[in-house]
Design a protein that fits this description.
Number of helices: 18
Shape: globular
Radius of gyration: 22 Å
CATH superfamily: Cytochrome P450
Bound molecules: protoporphyrin IX containing FE
Structural class: alpha+beta
Distance between the termini: 33 Å
Pfam family, one: p450
Family: Belongs to the cytochrome P450 family.
CATH topology: Cytochrome p450
Number of domains: 1
Helix content: 40-55%
Keywords: Heme, Iron, Metal-binding, Monooxygenase, Oxidoreductase
Order of helices and strands: HHEEHEHHHEHHHHHHHHHEEEEHHEEH
Strand content: 5-15%
GO molecular function: heme binding; iron ion binding; monooxygenase activity; oxidoreductase activity, acting on paired donors, with incorporation or reduction of molecular oxygen
Protein name: Cytochrome P450
Oligomer: single chain
CATH architecture: Orthogonal Bundle
Length: about 425
């Protein structure tokens, strides 16, 4: 089985590739060119995400290709200890405990602790867009990537002034680890990642030396460790910040772009969001299933394992095709149909499953809900420009739009009853 995630159909129409892989009777395939085992069925992806004894996380944040020696010598200097997403037991349960204690991760805690931050940042960005009335904007840099980054900076207590370099380091990390850069680019990106790691260490060191710990995440993590390295080391606090600054924004940025793409694909959908905010959580859930922001994720087998009729050896890197699993007809009725009213939508695997389940899921849902509701209320006439060439950044994990061009129109479109009737029929048919 061949899969080229960096060009061609996988970038322009990933669903067609997932369908081809899902329809193949073997279910699990070895992609020799990539050196990865492809796991696509819902049952198998769920098992691999949840069975930490068989499928380890140790190589999740290691490049998916053979890095050139010069870049590797830079990468080797990044001595960030593995925490959460890159850790296996016994480090994983300890660092996850630390994160759960210091980072709000239930809907109630997220609403009370981060809700005010999210609303302030959404309003700020929406006002900026409203001021561009009549103009064309690119919703990816001007809204979808900006919002989650600003929110995560506020949560960590990082100054806005650092936004540019954090964005560029985080984008660089994705290209370096999950992409296919040429050797010269590998070296440049690796140097950026090393700088990023030094930046996070400095951030934590300054906070620790300030003698004044506040309510931001870094302060909370330092308070939580209470000078006890068996609980959490200072370097592990820096490693958590290093991970959160990427995981906390690149993912939600993808979700926002996919949700806007779906919502603006017809004026009726956009109008329905403005008219009925209570429908938004289901809309977001279906976006997560249909177009996951992370549609491939990595594991390495810790021992030989058999999935269906296929045996994967120990030490093999596996690409869990979350996007394919979310389209598995064994679990989802009419899986290729975007249907916010479906009853099986909650079974998607877009936030993972089991011990590594996404710690930021509640925050991502809150951000997407508030963003869509307030944007639709303020700019009911927002529409995608007609010449839309969708393309995604080439990597195996993060499905991120390059651009989403739209026109700002704060006037609500005329509510034509004929159009409304067609829309209702469309929703009923879905
Ligand atoms: C739409 C948005 C998001 C998506 C699609 C997403 C996806 C995922 C997935 C698939 C995992 C599982 C990784 C694994 O099994 O190895 C995960 C874990 C994680 N996510 Fe998210 N995520 C999102 C938002 C966020 C946000 C907003 C944050 C934090 C601010 C965050 C922080 C984390 C962390 C720290 C982990 C590691 C948890 C662990 O290993 O115990 N994520 N996420």
């Amino acid at each position: 089985m061949r899969l080229n995630p960096f060009t061609g159909a996988y970038l322009s129409d990933p669903a067609s590739v997932w369908r081809r892989i899902l329809d193949d009777p073997a279910g699990v395939h070895h992609a020799e060119d990539l050196g990865l085992w492809l796991i696509s069925r819902h049952e198998h992806v769920r098992r691999a995400l949840g069975d930490a004894g068989t499928f380890g996380n140790a190589l999740t944040l290691a490049p998916v290709y053979e890095v050139c020696p010069e870049a590797m010598s830079v990468i080797m200097q990044i001595d960030a200890p593995p925490t959460t997403a890159a850790a296996d037991p016994p480090v994983h349960p300890r660092t996850r405990r630390a994160l759960r204690a210091t980072f709000a991760n239930t809907p109630d805690r997220v609403e009370s602790e981060y809700g005010p931050i999210v609303r302030r940042r959404v309003d700020q960005l929406v006002s900026r867009l409203v001021a561009r009335q009549g103009r064309q904007v690119d919703l990816v840099p001007e809204f979808a990537t900006e919002l989650p980054l600003l929110v995560v900076l506020d949560i960590l207590g990082v100054p806005d002034a650092d936004i540019g370099r954090i964005r560029s380091w985080a984008d660089g990390q994705i290209a370096l680890i999950w992409g296919q850069p040429d050797p010269e680019e590998q070296v440049r990106l690796a140097q950026g990642l090393l700088e990023f790691w030094h930046y996070c260490q400095e951030l934590v060191r300054q906070r620790a030396d300030s003698g004044h710990l506040g309510d931001d995440f870094i302060s909370r993590a330092l308070t939580y460790r209470d000078d006890d390295d068996d609980v959490l080391t200072v370097t592990e606090v820096a490693s958590l910040a290093f991970n959160l600054l990427v995981a906390g924004h690149e993912t939600t940025a993808g979700l926002l772009a996919h949700a806007l793409d779906q919502a603006l694909s017809s004026p009726q959908r956009w109008r329905a969001i403005a008219a009925d905010p209570l429908s938004v959580p289901a809309f977001v859930a279906e976006t997560l299933r249909f177009a996951p922001a992370i549609d491939g994720w990595l594991r390495v087998t810790r021992r030989e394992v058999t999935l269906g009729d296929v045996t994967i050896p120990a030490g093999a890197r596996c690409l869990l095709l979350i996007g394919a699993a979310n389209r598995d007809s064994a679990v989802f009725a009419h899986p290729d149909r975007f249907d916010p009213h479906r009853s099986d939508g909650r079974d998607h695997l877009s936030f993972g499953h089991g011990p590594h389940f996404c710690i930021g899921a509640a925050l991502a849902r809150l951000e997407a809900g508030i963003a869509l509701t307030r944007l639709a209320a303020a700019i009911p006439g927002l529409r995608l420009t007609s010449e839309q060439h969708r393309s995604y950044k080439p990597n195996v994990a993060f499905r991120a739009h390059h651009a989403l061009a739209a026109t700002i129109d704060i006037m609500a479109p005329v509510d034509d009853p004929k159009v409304r009737a067609t829309a209702s029929a469309e929703v009923r048919a879905a």
